[in-house]
Amino acid sequence: MPFGRTVGKMVSCQALWPLLVCLPMAQLTEAEVLEVLKTVNDPELHQDLVGLGMVDQISIDGGRVGISIVLTTPACPLRGKIEADIRSAVGRLEGVKVIELNFGAQVRGPKQEALPGVRNVVAVGSGKGGVGKSTLAANLAASLVLEGAAVGLLDADIYGPSQARMFALEGKRLMADDEKNIIPLRSYGVKLITIANLVEDGQALTWRGPILHGTLSQLLTQTVWGELDYLIVDLPPGTGDVQLSLSQLVPLSGAVLVTTPQDVALLDVKRAYTMFRKTHVPVLGIIENMSYYQLPDGTKDFVFGEGGAAELAEREGLELLGRIPLTKELRASGDDGKPLVVASPDSRDAQDLRKIARSLAGQVSIQAHMSLPVL
Fold first, then answer.
1. What contacts 2, CB < 8 A, 6 or more positions away?
2. CA nearest 44: which of 372, 361, 374, 288?
3. Which residues lie across from 115 on neighbouring strands?
4. Residue 266 sits in a domain of what CATH number?
5. Within its chain, how far is the Cα of 339 from the centroid?
6. Domain limits for position 101
7. Can you count the helices (H) and strands (E) in the chain?
8. Is residue 16 in a domain?
9. pLDDT tens digits for 213-240?
Protein backbone atom coordinates (compact mmCIF):
# COMPACT_ATOMS: atom_id res chain seq x y z
CA MET A 1 0.00 0.00 0.00
CA PRO A 2 1.38 3.40 -0.96
CA PHE A 3 2.53 5.55 1.93
CA GLY A 4 -0.19 7.83 3.31
CA ARG A 5 -3.04 6.00 1.62
CA THR A 6 -6.16 5.03 3.69
CA VAL A 7 -8.56 2.14 3.20
CA GLY A 8 -12.26 2.37 4.10
CA LYS A 9 -12.71 4.16 7.48
CA MET A 10 -9.11 3.72 8.59
CA VAL A 11 -7.68 7.04 9.86
CA SER A 12 -4.00 7.82 10.11
CA CYS A 13 -2.37 8.43 13.53
CA GLN A 14 -1.54 11.90 12.33
CA ALA A 15 -5.23 12.62 11.88
CA LEU A 16 -6.06 11.31 15.36
CA TRP A 17 -3.33 13.27 17.16
CA PRO A 18 -5.25 16.58 17.50
CA LEU A 19 -8.14 14.69 19.09
CA LEU A 20 -5.83 12.94 21.57
CA VAL A 21 -4.15 16.08 22.82
CA CYS A 22 -7.46 17.90 23.23
CA LEU A 23 -8.94 15.36 25.61
CA PRO A 24 -9.95 17.37 28.74
CA MET A 25 -7.88 16.87 31.91
CA ALA A 26 -9.44 16.72 35.38
CA GLN A 27 -9.73 20.24 36.84
CA LEU A 28 -8.01 20.75 40.23
CA THR A 29 -10.50 21.98 42.83
CA GLU A 30 -10.25 24.01 46.02
CA ALA A 31 -11.83 21.12 47.91
CA GLU A 32 -8.96 18.83 46.88
CA VAL A 33 -6.36 21.32 48.08
CA LEU A 34 -8.23 21.83 51.35
CA GLU A 35 -8.39 18.07 51.88
CA VAL A 36 -4.63 17.59 51.58
CA LEU A 37 -4.02 20.57 53.88
CA LYS A 38 -5.86 18.60 56.56
CA THR A 39 -2.85 16.29 56.58
CA VAL A 40 -0.48 19.15 57.48
CA ASN A 41 -0.13 19.81 61.22
CA ASP A 42 1.13 22.82 63.11
CA PRO A 43 4.29 21.28 64.66
CA GLU A 44 3.70 22.96 68.02
CA LEU A 45 -0.07 22.75 68.37
CA HIS A 46 -0.22 19.21 66.91
CA GLN A 47 -3.44 19.89 65.03
CA ASP A 48 -4.07 20.28 61.32
CA LEU A 49 -4.00 23.71 59.71
CA VAL A 50 -7.60 23.50 58.54
CA GLY A 51 -8.92 22.55 61.97
CA LEU A 52 -6.95 25.41 63.54
CA GLY A 53 -8.48 27.90 61.11
CA MET A 54 -5.07 28.83 59.71
CA VAL A 55 -6.03 28.38 56.02
CA ASP A 56 -7.34 31.79 55.00
CA GLN A 57 -7.65 31.54 51.21
CA ILE A 58 -7.05 29.16 48.31
CA SER A 59 -6.90 30.22 44.66
CA ILE A 60 -6.37 28.03 41.60
CA ASP A 61 -5.35 29.19 38.14
CA GLY A 62 -4.56 26.21 35.93
CA GLY A 63 -1.56 24.52 37.52
CA ARG A 64 -0.86 27.48 39.80
CA VAL A 65 -2.11 27.14 43.38
CA GLY A 66 -2.11 30.10 45.76
CA ILE A 67 -2.55 29.52 49.51
CA SER A 68 -2.78 32.11 52.27
CA ILE A 69 -1.88 30.88 55.76
CA VAL A 70 -2.55 32.82 58.98
CA LEU A 71 0.07 31.88 61.59
CA THR A 72 -0.62 32.17 65.31
CA THR A 73 2.27 34.64 65.68
CA PRO A 74 4.49 36.60 63.28
CA ALA A 75 7.39 35.20 65.32
CA CYS A 76 6.46 31.62 64.48
CA PRO A 77 9.60 29.55 65.18
CA LEU A 78 8.61 26.70 62.83
CA ARG A 79 7.32 28.61 59.83
CA GLY A 80 9.93 26.96 57.61
CA LYS A 81 8.70 23.47 58.49
CA ILE A 82 5.07 24.45 57.95
CA GLU A 83 5.96 25.81 54.50
CA ALA A 84 7.91 22.69 53.57
CA ASP A 85 5.08 20.40 54.71
CA ILE A 86 2.50 22.38 52.71
CA ARG A 87 4.59 22.29 49.55
CA SER A 88 5.16 18.55 49.95
CA ALA A 89 1.46 17.74 50.49
CA VAL A 90 -0.01 20.03 47.82
CA GLY A 91 2.75 19.19 45.36
CA ARG A 92 1.55 15.59 45.24
CA LEU A 93 -1.78 16.63 43.71
CA GLU A 94 -2.09 15.94 40.00
CA GLY A 95 -1.80 19.03 37.86
CA VAL A 96 -0.02 21.24 40.41
CA LYS A 97 2.91 23.04 38.81
CA VAL A 98 3.47 26.13 40.96
CA ILE A 99 2.65 26.68 44.65
CA GLU A 100 2.51 30.27 45.86
CA LEU A 101 2.38 30.65 49.65
CA ASN A 102 1.51 33.83 51.48
CA PHE A 103 1.94 34.00 55.26
CA GLY A 104 0.15 36.38 57.57
CA ALA A 105 -0.28 36.23 61.33
CA GLN A 106 -2.90 36.82 63.97
CA VAL A 107 -1.65 36.45 67.53
CA ARG A 108 -4.02 34.54 69.73
CA GLY A 109 -4.40 34.98 73.44
CA PRO A 110 -6.31 33.38 76.31
CA LYS A 111 -10.09 33.25 76.16
CA GLN A 112 -10.20 36.13 78.63
CA GLU A 113 -8.45 39.21 77.25
CA ALA A 114 -5.85 40.44 79.73
CA LEU A 115 -6.44 44.16 79.14
CA PRO A 116 -8.50 46.01 76.51
CA GLY A 117 -6.70 45.43 73.23
CA VAL A 118 -3.87 43.41 74.84
CA ARG A 119 -3.85 39.77 73.76
CA ASN A 120 -1.07 38.41 75.94
CA VAL A 121 0.71 39.53 79.10
CA VAL A 122 4.03 37.76 79.65
CA ALA A 123 6.01 38.25 82.87
CA VAL A 124 9.81 38.04 82.89
CA GLY A 125 11.05 37.14 86.36
CA SER A 126 14.00 35.79 88.29
CA GLY A 127 14.66 34.46 91.74
CA LYS A 128 17.42 36.97 92.42
CA GLY A 129 18.92 40.15 91.06
CA GLY A 130 21.98 40.44 88.89
CA VAL A 131 21.14 37.68 86.41
CA GLY A 132 20.36 39.99 83.47
CA LYS A 133 16.58 39.77 83.64
CA SER A 134 15.93 43.35 82.52
CA THR A 135 18.46 43.10 79.70
CA LEU A 136 16.74 40.00 78.36
CA ALA A 137 13.26 41.51 78.82
CA ALA A 138 14.32 44.51 76.74
CA ASN A 139 15.77 42.32 73.97
CA LEU A 140 12.73 40.02 73.95
CA ALA A 141 10.41 43.00 73.49
CA ALA A 142 12.57 44.51 70.73
CA SER A 143 12.93 41.10 69.04
CA LEU A 144 9.18 40.54 68.89
CA VAL A 145 8.78 43.97 67.27
CA LEU A 146 11.38 43.01 64.66
CA GLU A 147 9.34 39.87 63.96
CA GLY A 148 6.33 42.05 63.17
CA ALA A 149 4.39 41.95 66.44
CA ALA A 150 2.85 44.88 68.33
CA VAL A 151 4.64 44.98 71.69
CA GLY A 152 4.50 46.90 74.95
CA LEU A 153 6.92 46.75 77.89
CA LEU A 154 5.97 47.53 81.48
CA ASP A 155 8.89 48.07 83.83
CA ALA A 156 7.39 46.74 87.05
CA ASP A 157 10.71 46.78 88.90
CA ILE A 158 9.49 49.69 91.00
CA TYR A 159 12.54 49.95 93.27
CA GLY A 160 15.14 49.48 90.53
CA PRO A 161 13.67 50.50 87.15
CA SER A 162 16.17 50.24 84.31
CA GLN A 163 14.18 50.07 81.07
CA ALA A 164 14.24 53.85 80.53
CA ARG A 165 18.03 53.61 80.30
CA MET A 166 17.96 50.53 78.09
CA PHE A 167 15.63 52.25 75.60
CA ALA A 168 17.32 55.69 75.69
CA LEU A 169 14.31 57.33 77.34
CA GLU A 170 15.94 58.72 80.47
CA GLY A 171 14.62 62.16 81.35
CA LYS A 172 11.50 61.79 79.20
CA ARG A 173 8.28 62.54 81.05
CA LEU A 174 5.13 60.46 80.76
CA MET A 175 2.11 62.42 79.57
CA ALA A 176 -1.63 61.89 80.01
CA ASP A 177 -4.53 62.34 77.62
CA ASP A 178 -7.68 64.38 78.27
CA GLU A 179 -9.15 61.50 80.28
CA LYS A 180 -6.02 61.31 82.46
CA ASN A 181 -4.89 58.03 80.95
CA ILE A 182 -1.14 57.52 80.64
CA ILE A 183 0.36 57.68 77.15
CA PRO A 184 3.30 55.26 76.88
CA LEU A 185 6.63 56.35 75.50
CA ARG A 186 7.90 54.64 72.35
CA SER A 187 11.38 53.49 71.43
CA TYR A 188 12.49 51.07 68.69
CA GLY A 189 8.83 50.24 68.11
CA VAL A 190 8.19 49.23 71.74
CA LYS A 191 5.56 51.04 73.82
CA LEU A 192 7.18 51.58 77.21
CA ILE A 193 5.93 52.46 80.69
CA THR A 194 8.33 52.76 83.60
CA ILE A 195 8.16 54.45 86.99
CA ALA A 196 11.52 56.01 86.15
CA ASN A 197 9.72 58.46 83.87
CA LEU A 198 7.35 59.52 86.66
CA VAL A 199 9.84 60.39 89.42
CA GLU A 200 12.99 62.47 89.61
CA ASP A 201 16.23 60.79 88.56
CA GLY A 202 17.81 58.93 91.45
CA GLN A 203 14.79 59.30 93.73
CA ALA A 204 14.45 56.36 96.12
CA LEU A 205 10.98 54.85 96.46
CA THR A 206 10.07 53.57 99.91
CA TRP A 207 6.59 52.28 99.22
CA ARG A 208 4.92 49.48 101.10
CA GLY A 209 2.73 46.72 99.67
CA PRO A 210 -0.63 48.56 99.31
CA ILE A 211 0.99 51.49 97.49
CA LEU A 212 2.89 49.11 95.20
CA HIS A 213 -0.35 47.31 94.37
CA GLY A 214 -2.15 50.55 93.57
CA THR A 215 0.73 51.87 91.45
CA LEU A 216 1.00 48.67 89.45
CA SER A 217 -2.76 48.68 88.91
CA GLN A 218 -2.62 52.24 87.58
CA LEU A 219 0.29 51.54 85.26
CA LEU A 220 -1.49 48.48 83.86
CA THR A 221 -5.07 49.64 83.56
CA GLN A 222 -4.76 53.41 83.06
CA THR A 223 -2.27 53.24 80.21
CA VAL A 224 -3.38 53.70 76.61
CA TRP A 225 -1.72 50.52 75.34
CA GLY A 226 -3.76 50.31 72.14
CA GLU A 227 -3.69 47.02 70.27
CA LEU A 228 -0.85 44.80 71.50
CA ASP A 229 0.06 41.23 70.66
CA TYR A 230 2.37 41.00 73.67
CA LEU A 231 2.84 43.07 76.81
CA ILE A 232 6.15 42.10 78.41
CA VAL A 233 6.34 42.82 82.16
CA ASP A 234 9.82 43.18 83.65
CA LEU A 235 9.35 42.04 87.24
CA PRO A 236 11.56 42.89 90.20
CA PRO A 237 13.72 40.01 91.44
CA GLY A 238 12.32 37.66 94.05
CA THR A 239 8.78 36.63 94.95
CA GLY A 240 7.31 39.72 96.60
CA ASP A 241 4.32 42.04 96.42
CA VAL A 242 4.64 43.04 92.77
CA GLN A 243 4.64 39.43 91.55
CA LEU A 244 1.59 38.57 93.63
CA SER A 245 -0.26 41.74 92.63
CA LEU A 246 0.39 41.16 88.93
CA SER A 247 -1.07 37.66 89.08
CA GLN A 248 -4.18 39.12 90.76
CA LEU A 249 -4.65 42.12 88.50
CA VAL A 250 -4.48 40.50 85.05
CA PRO A 251 -4.68 36.97 83.61
CA LEU A 252 -1.15 36.17 82.52
CA SER A 253 -0.41 34.14 79.41
CA GLY A 254 2.67 32.92 81.20
CA ALA A 255 6.01 33.73 82.75
CA VAL A 256 9.62 33.39 81.64
CA LEU A 257 12.35 32.68 84.20
CA VAL A 258 15.86 34.06 83.81
CA THR A 259 18.78 32.53 85.67
CA THR A 260 22.51 31.95 85.50
CA PRO A 261 24.03 28.46 85.83
CA GLN A 262 25.18 29.32 89.36
CA ASP A 263 23.78 27.05 92.09
CA VAL A 264 22.61 30.00 94.22
CA ALA A 265 20.75 31.54 91.27
CA LEU A 266 19.13 28.18 90.49
CA LEU A 267 17.94 27.82 94.08
CA ASP A 268 16.25 31.21 93.87
CA VAL A 269 14.74 30.68 90.44
CA LYS A 270 13.23 27.43 91.71
CA ARG A 271 11.44 29.52 94.36
CA ALA A 272 10.14 31.82 91.63
CA TYR A 273 8.93 28.80 89.69
CA THR A 274 7.10 27.51 92.76
CA MET A 275 5.46 30.90 93.29
CA PHE A 276 4.14 31.02 89.72
CA ARG A 277 2.77 27.51 90.08
CA LYS A 278 0.96 28.45 93.30
CA THR A 279 -0.59 31.47 91.60
CA HIS A 280 -1.61 29.33 88.57
CA VAL A 281 0.64 31.17 86.10
CA PRO A 282 2.03 28.91 83.35
CA VAL A 283 5.82 28.96 83.16
CA LEU A 284 6.68 29.21 79.47
CA GLY A 285 10.34 28.37 79.86
CA ILE A 286 13.76 29.21 81.24
CA ILE A 287 16.51 31.36 79.76
CA GLU A 288 20.05 30.76 80.96
CA ASN A 289 22.06 33.99 80.87
CA MET A 290 25.84 34.29 81.29
CA SER A 291 26.14 30.62 80.32
CA TYR A 292 29.82 30.92 79.51
CA TYR A 293 32.56 33.31 78.46
CA GLN A 294 34.10 32.84 75.02
CA LEU A 295 37.88 32.99 75.26
CA PRO A 296 40.00 34.40 72.40
CA ASP A 297 41.14 30.91 71.39
CA GLY A 298 37.52 29.80 70.95
CA THR A 299 37.21 27.74 74.12
CA LYS A 300 34.42 28.37 76.62
CA ASP A 301 35.00 29.31 80.23
CA PHE A 302 31.95 28.31 82.29
CA VAL A 303 32.39 31.05 84.86
CA PHE A 304 29.18 30.36 86.79
CA GLY A 305 29.00 26.60 86.30
CA GLU A 306 27.57 24.51 83.51
CA GLY A 307 24.23 22.94 82.63
CA GLY A 308 22.26 24.11 85.67
CA ALA A 309 19.29 25.56 83.79
CA ALA A 310 19.07 22.53 81.50
CA GLU A 311 18.93 20.21 84.50
CA LEU A 312 16.22 22.31 86.17
CA ALA A 313 14.19 22.45 82.95
CA GLU A 314 14.39 18.69 82.48
CA ARG A 315 13.52 18.00 86.10
CA GLU A 316 10.47 20.28 86.09
CA GLY A 317 9.35 19.52 82.54
CA LEU A 318 10.00 23.07 81.31
CA GLU A 319 11.28 24.43 78.01
CA LEU A 320 14.87 25.64 77.96
CA LEU A 321 14.28 28.58 75.62
CA GLY A 322 17.97 29.26 75.10
CA ARG A 323 21.41 30.11 76.48
CA ILE A 324 23.14 33.48 76.19
CA PRO A 325 26.88 33.85 76.87
CA LEU A 326 28.52 36.52 79.02
CA THR A 327 29.59 39.26 76.58
CA LYS A 328 30.71 42.84 76.75
CA GLU A 329 28.50 43.74 73.76
CA LEU A 330 25.28 42.68 75.47
CA ARG A 331 26.16 44.62 78.60
CA ALA A 332 27.23 47.70 76.65
CA SER A 333 24.08 47.74 74.53
CA GLY A 334 21.94 48.15 77.64
CA ASP A 335 24.12 50.95 78.97
CA ASP A 336 24.04 52.65 75.57
CA GLY A 337 20.25 52.60 75.41
CA LYS A 338 19.91 50.29 72.42
CA PRO A 339 18.98 46.61 72.78
CA LEU A 340 21.53 44.32 71.17
CA VAL A 341 19.05 42.97 68.62
CA VAL A 342 18.70 46.54 67.33
CA ALA A 343 22.30 47.72 67.84
CA SER A 344 23.98 44.68 66.30
CA PRO A 345 21.29 42.63 64.55
CA ASP A 346 23.69 40.37 62.63
CA SER A 347 25.76 39.33 65.64
CA ARG A 348 25.58 35.76 66.89
CA ASP A 349 24.15 36.80 70.26
CA ALA A 350 21.47 38.96 68.62
CA GLN A 351 20.44 36.05 66.41
CA ASP A 352 20.27 33.79 69.48
CA LEU A 353 18.07 36.35 71.25
CA ARG A 354 15.78 36.52 68.20
CA LYS A 355 15.54 32.73 68.25
CA ILE A 356 14.63 32.77 71.95
CA ALA A 357 11.92 35.35 71.26
CA ARG A 358 10.46 33.15 68.51
CA SER A 359 10.49 30.14 70.85
CA LEU A 360 8.74 32.22 73.50
CA ALA A 361 6.09 33.30 70.99
CA GLY A 362 5.56 29.64 70.12
CA GLN A 363 5.02 28.75 73.78
CA VAL A 364 2.52 31.60 74.14
CA SER A 365 0.60 30.20 71.14
CA ILE A 366 0.55 26.75 72.73
CA GLN A 367 -0.84 28.18 75.99
CA ALA A 368 -3.47 30.15 74.09
CA HIS A 369 -4.53 27.01 72.22
CA MET A 370 -4.74 25.02 75.46
CA SER A 371 -6.93 27.71 77.07
CA LEU A 372 -9.53 27.66 74.28
CA PRO A 373 -12.79 25.87 75.04
CA VAL A 374 -13.26 22.41 73.58
CA LEU A 375 -15.97 22.47 70.90
1. none
2. 361
3. 118
4. 3.40.50.300
5. 17
6. 26-105
7. 12, 17
8. no
9. 888 888 999 999 999 999 999 998 887 7
